[in-house]
Specification:
The protein is of the alpha/beta class and 397 residues long. Helices cover 37% and strands 16% of the residues. It has 2 domains: 262 residues, Rossmann fold (3-Layer(aba) Sandwich); 84 residues, 2-Layer Sandwich (formyl-coa transferase, domain 3).
Length: 397
């Protein structure tokens, strides 16, 4: 019986990955998890910038750090690495030939940066009209900022999320991971799949233009729409919610918990847990709109009551009463939890370069009932698959 994984839903699609850092690699890793073949083009001897973004690094069989950082590992499984220097005519020609054998190309060069190598959409689509070509940039292919570089931190600043994040009395704060890059990568996947659907129906490929800043503006969601409707800037609220009260972090007698009472009934039950049913009957706090209006008064009252209760006791009482809330886990607690284990969100992949024989990774969150996600290739060393890929795809070119 074969131990090979079942074909994924994107089995048969081939992706040429000319991206690096996080947004593009997040996109292509997800396509790879779904079964597509991913060919990652890297500069010989250097590779993806994130290979050097450590420590920590994978420890090699010689006991020394390898060139694979944890950052690189996070977005580069299910890929094969081909080391080619596109700045040379020979290298550019090799990549042009590879593109002719691919369904999808993902790149995150500066606007127009690939045209001088003949690797832009117009050049490649002449020979491969069904090619779906996705360009990821900081500000997009058009507009007054199109030629500016794009990094996650800059996009978080420009796109407004930092103005909403952080302590009210502190400085604007970025999110603790490169979330704009990640969300942009997710938007890119959905766009690519929509374009593949169109190609399969019409035979036509197309150029997808997606920007970090556009993605950031899009996921302002309710905060952005609140501003558009009211014209009022949302202040930084720390862990509080602009439209729901109480929906935030509170200190207990021995730690912190999240309370997320999303409706009036949940709030009433929470007041019962605290032994303060009067706070649910008080006209200032009876309805959510009243609680938002009188936020400062109510939070002051709730804070004093919650400080008298232990963290575990409060979480158990909320669970019993059906009031949403829970602990604030450290990363060690996250990856030690039975829920993460049960959902397969911590995995290990064999890696012949690692001293331990494998590398720990975060699993894919999608659970298909018919075409499960598969983990076929550990994040590769730079150029590890160059000869195999070129022999396989270009032998008759």
């Amino acid at each position: 019986m074969s131990n090979a994984p079942a074909p994924g839903p994107l089995d048969g699609l081939r992706v040429l990955d000319l991206s690096r850092i996080l947004a593009g690699p997040t996109c292509t890793q997800l396509l790879g998890d779904y079964g597509a073949e991913i060919i990652k083009i890297e500069k010989p001897g250097l590779g993806d910038d994130t290979r050097a973004w450590g420590p920590p690094y994978v420890t090699g069989t010689d006991g020394e750090p390898t060139a694979e950082s944890a950052y690189y590992l996070s977005a580069n499984r299910n890929k094969r690495s081909v080391a080619v220097d596109i700045a040379t005519e020979e290298g550019a020609e090799t990549v042009r030939h590879l593109a002719g054998h691919c369904d999808i190309l993902v790149e995150n060069f500066k606007v127009g940066g690939l045209a001088k190598y003949g690797l832009d959409y117009d050049s490649l689509s002449r020979d491969n009209p069904g090619l779906v070509y996705c360009s990821i940039t900081g500000f997009g292919q058009t507009g007054p900022n199109a030629n500016k570089p794009g990094y996650d931190l800059l996009a978080q600043g420009y796109g407004g999320i930092m103005s909403l994040t952080g302590d009210p009395e502190g400085e604007p704060m970025k999110v603790g991971v490169g979330v704009t890059d990640v969300v942009c990568g997710l938007y890119a996947v959905t766009a690519i799949l929509a374009a593949i659907r169109h190609r399969d129906q019409s035979g036509e490929g197309q150029h997808i233009d997606i920007a970090l800043v556009d993605s950031q503006v899009a996921w302002l969601v309710n905060a952005g729409t609140n501003y558009l409707l009211s014209g009022q800037e949302q202040p930084r609220l720390g862990n509080q919610h602009p439209n729901i009260v109480p929906y935030q972090v509170f200190a207990t007698s021995d730690g912190h918990v999240i309370v997320a009472a999303g409706n009036d009934a949940q709030y009433k039950r929470f007041c019962g847990i605290l032994g303060r049913p009067d706070l649910a009957e008080d006209e200032r706090f009876r309805r959510n709109i009243d609680r938002v209006t009188n936020r400062d008064v109510l939070i002051g009252l709730l804070t004093g009551e919650i400080l008298r209760i232990g963290k575990a006791d409060l979480v158990r009482a909320m669970e019993a009463a059906g009031v949403p809330g829970g602990p604030i886990n450290s990363l060690s607690e996250v990856f030690a939890s039975d829920q993460v284990e049960a959902r397969g969100m911590k995995i290990s992949m064999p890696d012949e370069h690692a001293a331990s024989g494998g590398v720990p990774l975060i699993g894919n969150p999608v659970k298909f009932s018919k075409t499960p996600v598969s983990y076929r290739h550990a994040p590769p060393a730079c150029g590890a698959d160059t000869q195999d890929v070129l022999d396989d795809l270009l032998k008759d070119s």
